[in-house]
Amino acid sequence: MRNWRALLGNERGVALVLSLMMLLALTGLLLAFMSVSALEPQISRNVADTARDRYLAEAGIEVGFNALINISNFSTALTSASASAPWAAVVTDATLSGVTGGGSSAEAAFAGTYSVVVRNDFQNADSAMTGQSAGSDTTPNETLTSDSNGIVIMRATGSFNGASKTIEVVVRRQQLPPFPGAVNLPGLQADSFINKTSFDIDGRDYVCSASCDTDANWTAGASNMKFGIATQPGTQSNVGVTYEARVESAVSGSSSKQASIKGKSETTGAYTTGLNTIQADPALNPTVMQQYIDAVANFPGTTILQSTQACPMKLTGSPSGLTSTPTLTNGCSGVSGVNEPLDLGTRDNPKLVYFRGDTDPTSQFTGLTLDKGIKGAGILIIEDGDLKNLGSFQWDGVVIVTGNYVGSGFMDDSDTLIRGAFVANEKVAGEASGFFEFYLHSGADSFSIRNSQQNLDMVQVMRGNHALTNWREL
């Protein structure tokens, strides 16, 4: 018994066993640390490669977006799409047939590449991403290769070192409504007062060959011809005559006035002058106009300048020549006062300029007054207030006066030149008599409004008309 107890109480050799156990544990930890240290650079590299892939994809989104907004019709980018391959390349070699970034193969290996493709929103499931109703996404006008709603889906993939990242976005364009005439009166009243015997309203398509700031370089083309003046169909309720007849009454009895209105014939479609180029057209009506105005007002990036009856907006340009940065004032001081230059855009950088006024049932509120030499390019909107030109005014693009109790006045000593389209849209059916949607005073020095598809296309591709939405990573 004593021998067993002595043996069990003997602790000799325990230190060796514990040492071996500790050595094994430390060896395991060492191997684990060595394994982690070997994997950590690879993990870090993978994270860096993934980040680079994402940045490359974002670069592709920017390049693809810039490519898309520079074409007047998204359908151009969809021509190569097919049922088996609905995605069409956006840019390759700086053209609209696909984008590959990275330059030479050596540069690509060092920096990575990106590719960009686009497809139309023609599938039923696309409504979940675009936010459009399934019915509008699947209309007959939306096909693989034909876009009609100004919405496409773009996908960019960044690739580097065997890894890739894909980003998908929706590209939206706020499309212009149709303008069937050089002058358009699509509202609930088309009261017109034309007291000047010689002027220029021309529905022929004016195209600039070079140096577009020089009016002599603009010539009338035969394609894309429109009416001289267009109204909506139907009868103006407060006078009991058609909208078309309401406009025609402003020039009837004067051969000189009628000769000043030119454009497409309402009967033959050929070039003509006079009453036959004043026509009702259903393409532009109060509903279409209001949908467009609402869309522009709610479009990302739209800035609305408020003109009030207490502080009405006025643009004052150059006393000699024309400036695209006139001074905007509203006649008030303090926090309500405005006195600053306003960029009205150029042909190289057209702008959306939006003024909103106060509804005035007396029809006497001028929401925007133009004084002295002013020029601009893009879209000019004056809502719920009159537009009145007192000086020299030149605009490339679209000028829209719209809202309640509104009108446009081209006054004594004024010079007006609009190349693109002009719209005066009255939303009230019962405005008092004596107020006009279109007013041309006899004392105006010159007045010219010309249809120009070139300028309408220019407006269509301006950056402010586009937005990236519904960003998601795949």
Question: Care to describe what's here?
Answer:
This protein is 23% helix and 32% strand. Strands 6, 8, 11, 14, 15, 16, 17, 21, 23, 25, 27 and 29 form a twelve-stranded mixed beta sheet that branches. The chain has 474 residues and is α/β, with parallel strands linked by helices. It has helices spanning 2-8, 14-69, 105-111, 127-130, 134-137, 243-248, 255-259, 286-297, 453-460; strands at 88-89, 99-100, 113-120, 151-160, 163-173, 181-185, 192-194, 200-202, 205-208, 218-221, 227-231, 235-236, 241-242, 261-264, 271-273, 278-280, 304-306, 313-316, 327-329, 339-341, 351-356, 366-371, 374-383, 386-389, 392-403, 408-410, 415-426, 438-440, 446-451, 466-473. The protein folds into two domains: 48-173; 181-460, no CATH class. The longest helix is centred in the N-terminal third of the chain and has 56 residues, at 14-69. A hairpin with a 4-residue loop joins strand 12 (235-236) and strand 13.
Summarize the topology.
Elements: H1 2-8, H2 14-69, E1 88-89, E2 99-100, H3 105-111, E3 113-120, H4 127-130, H5 134-137, E4 151-160, E5 163-173, E6 181-185, E7 192-194, E8 200-202, E9 205-208, E10 218-221, E11 227-231, E12 235-236, E13 241-242, H6 243-248, H7 255-259, E14 261-264, E15 271-273, E16 278-280, H8 286-297, E17 304-306, E18 313-316, E19 327-329, E20 339-341, E21 351-356, E22 366-371, E23 374-383, E24 386-389, E25 392-403, E26 408-410, E27 415-426, E28 438-440, E29 446-451, H9 453-460, E30 466-473
Parallel strand pairs: 6-11, 6-27, 7-28, 8-14, 8-29, 11-16, 17-21, 18-22, 21-23, 22-24, 23-25, 24-26, 25-27, 26-28, 27-29
Antiparallel strand pairs: 1-3, 2-3, 3-4, 4-5, 5-30, 9-10, 12-13, 14-15, 18-19, 19-20
